[in-house]
Amino acid sequence: MSATELDAALRAGAKVVVLEVGRETGEHTEARRSYLAGHLPGAYFVPFEEDLIGPPEAGAGAGPLPRAEDLRERLRVWGVDDDSTVVVHTRQSPAVATRAWWVLRWAGVADVRYLNGGLSAWRRIGGALDTGVPPPGAGTAVVRTGSLPLLTAEEAGRLAAAGHLLDARATEAYVGDPHRTGTGHIPGAHTVPGSHNFADGELAGPATLSALYAAHLDGRAVGAYCGSGVSATTTVLALASLGIEAALYPGSWSAWITDPARPAATGARPGGAHPPPAR
Fold first, then answer.
1. How does strand 111-114 pair with strand 85-90?
2. Same structural domain, 100 and 197
3. Nearest to 78 by CA among 161, 15, 3
4. Looking at 124, 139, 163, which one is the last position of a domain?
5. Is residue 131 part of a domain?
6. Helices assigned H by DSSP within the chain
7. Mind giving me the DSSP string for 107-173?
8. Has this prediction a pTM greater than 0.90?
9. Residue 25's domain is classified under what CATH number?
10. Residue ranges of the Rhodanese domain (predicted)?
């Protein structure tokens, strides 16, 4: 959603819930202070680690998904109903907001939008800022986890061989070091850094994204992963903007390497399966 579209929806009195996501915890952080100094009208502040990351779970990696009951409570407080339009944005890396977009869509919220350009775009159109903190809402949205496709580790490995598994980490992380355990990528995965999905702070246009992903749009299934299931959500969003549904491997590399029997590849090419070096 563009800032202009959001402004029009708010002026029309549409049922819109705005969420500003900040990747810091605690009550006195820079992200929260910035929010309190001025935010989009009616926006709730969403602490990333508290609301979008679930409790630690063996083998789930560094960014496990939130529990359904926790999401149900957050949607209630934010005043989200089943027919609400939820608009997410962040002042930080776009992946902070796209993780929110993905989690809410996965939880069954039907209409979730990423605010393209975020607060900067809002300011460019002369949008007003608010300093008041909205009171807790009484949302009635029903949580339906599993509403977006995801991959287990085994499914990610198979997809890398039979379809298109895209690694959204920086190239250096994908390449890894053959002499260091726990580095590299899932054998068969292709590198497409999530940062390439954006230009000048906004999601790249259809022509740019189509060219970026052209080699992986041959009709076979597409999936994405990263380090901890955060930056790969930018890939899922980018492909969704092209009408392509991509599955997310939420555990991503941080979960993949918890099992020493899983193979790892290093180098700039997808590579074949070979075991990681001995410790």
1. parallel
2. no
3. 15
4. 124
5. no
6. 3-11, 30-37, 48-51, 68-77, 94-106, 118-124, 153-162, 171-175, 206-213, 232-241, 252-256
7. TT-SEEEE-TTHHHHHHHTT---B-PPPPP----PPP-TTSS-B--HHHHHHHHHHSEEEE-S-HHH
8. yes
9. 3.40.250.10
10. 12-131, 159-265
Say if 134 falls within a structural domain: no
- Residue 206 tokens read as 């259809």
Tell me, yes or no, whether 210 lies in a domain: yes
How do residues 179-203 score in pLDDT, each as one tens digit? 999 999 999 999 999 999 999 899 9
* 87 shares its domain with 45: yes
Active site residue 226: yes
What's the number of domains the chain is made of? 2
Alpha carbon 177 to chain centroid, angstroms: 27
**Catalytic pick among 115, 166, 226, 248:** 226
* Partner residues linked to 224 by β-bridges: 166, 248
Distance CA 196, CA 80 (A): 32
Closest CA to 162 of 212, 216, 227: 216
If asked whether residues 10 and 120 sit together in one domain, one would say: yes
58 plus 162 within the same structural domain: no
Both 24 and 92 in a single domain?
yes
CA 210 to chain centre: 20
Residue keyed to tokens 């052209």: 214
| Interstrand relation of 190-191 and 44-47 (parallel, antiparallel or unpaired) | unpaired
Looking at the chain, how many residues does it have?
Answer: 279
204 lies in which domain range? 153-256
**Residue 110 burial by CB count (10 A; 0-12/13-18/19+): exposed, middle or buried?**
middle
The span from the CA of 25 to the CA of 48, in Å, is: 8
26 and 111 share one domain? yes
Encoded tokens for 123: 């300011």
